[in-house]
Amino acid sequence: MSSETTIAIYGPGLLGGSLALAIQERLPGSSLRLWARRESAQEAILARGIQAEFYTDATAAATGASLIILCTPVETMPALAAQIAMADLSPDTLITDVGSVKGSVVRALDPILGPRFIGSHPMAGSEKAGIETARASLFQNATCLITPGARTPPSASSPEVTGARTPPSASSPEVTGARTPPSASPPEVTGARTPPSASPPEVTGARTPPSASSPEVTGARTPPSASSPEATGARTTPSASPLTRLRTFWQTLGCNVLEMSPDEHDEKVARISHLPHMMAAVTTLAALRTDPTAVSCVANGFRDTTRVAGGDPGLWTGIALENRTALLSQLQAASATLTELLEILGKPDEEELRRFLAEAQTLRRTVPAAVS
């Protein structure tokens, strides 16, 4: 279970709105904040039943948050990050995003936000936009790619790099992000923490140095009292590494988490997301630009192949330009493959055409089925 107590979401569109709904459902004890550029967005947020503090001041929305998530277009993130950096942030504040491009975003935000920023990309979405289309289940069984930067503090272990997922262990709840219920067992096993005072530093953002007799100094762990966070179910301020916290957060929302470098992310996503979008646009234009009346004959094959071409042109212009180098490489590979097909049909060579289509069929069968 994620330990984030105050989560600020910037940009309540499809992804930001879905995050808010999922957090309400899976982290009901967390305090939610939503930032939007316009006051008018608040009405749509309330209409979706989202209980959150609403902000149009980016700096104010960040102050005191334990986790900040940027859900705005990637080209707007540097300016937004500069406003967030002016906030009174706790040393433990973690900042991430949901953008489709990582290399340029990490390079732009690292000088502004430092190692507290770690990129995320949940591979979930729709050709539809806006909070009206948001849903709490959007991230269930989705893959989320996390892209640590050069200055990201390492976690104790990173099984997600290989795609493995480590279940919580009774002896290491801090590593997995799990919370152990209190029992009569020794606190070393339960992972209990000393209960906060009437004005806990976790709430104010201040950090109180341990006294000579505190558990932090002596190495002892104090069992929970009846009013402690562990006994009441409340979550305490995160103490795990930033990477562990981020993995745990996305896993709490139902994601399968993988780690990779920002550049590897951009190359892979250019192949399996950005190229297909551009090819859907190419197919739509090639089929309908010169004969729009052909639309009266379309069936499911055309709808399936071109569905993502219905996405927001402004959003996808930004994505394509931000990931231009990797996308150009994949488009050139697609062009070479199309040239291969043109040559086969030009001969024509029945056996070569069958081989071409059979290879595509075999590769397509390796694609995992969608899980709802």
TrEMBL record:
Q: Where is this region: Disordered?
A: 146-243
Keyword Ribonucleoprotein attributed: no
Q: Where is the Prephenate/arogenate dehydrogenase domain?
A: 5-372
Q: Which GO terms describe its biological process?
A: tyrosine biosynthetic process
Q: Does Lipid biosynthesis count among this protein's keywords?
A: no
Any GO MF annotation of the entry: prephenate dehydrogenase (NADP+) activity
User: Keywords in UniProt for this one?
Assistant: Oxidoreductase
Concerning InterPro entries, the annotation shows: 6-PGluconate_DH-like_C_sf, NAD(P)-bd_dom_sf, PDH_C, PDH_N, Preph/Arog_dehydrog, Prephen_DH
| UniProt feature coiled coil, ranges | none
Polar residues composition bias: which ranges?
Answer: 224-242
Name this protein carries in UniProt: Prephenate dehydrogenase
Q: Source species, please?
A: Prosthecobacter fusiformis
